[in-house]
Amino acid sequence: EADCLADSLSHLNGKEKDFLVYILKKRLYEFTPIDVSKMLGVTNKTVINRCAKLSSNGFLMPIIVNTRVRSYRVSEFLRVNEKNIMKILLPA
Known about the structure:
Elements: H1 2-10, H2 14-25, E1 30-31, H3 33-40, H4 44-56, E2 60-65, E3 68-74, H5 76-80, H6 82-89
Antiparallel strand pairs: 1-3, 2-3
C-alpha cells in the first residue's frame, strides 16, 4: 500500500506536494481556491492549477455548481491515507 501511495505522489511536483501538505496541516477538508490563494499569498489561478493536478491524481474532489468548479473537497482516498501520506511527504 505504501508503494501505491508513493506512486500516486510521484506524479506531483514539489510545489504540488507542498500544497498537499499545507491542506492537510491546516485541516482544509473543504475550501475555495480564492480563500486558499489569500492564505498563501499566491494568485487564484495558481491554486486552481494545483487543485486540478491534485484532483487528477485522486487527492481532491471538485465540487461543481452549475457546471463550474466552486470549491474542492479532500477525497476519501486522501482522508484514509492522510497519516501515511504525511509520513512520505514529511519524513521525520
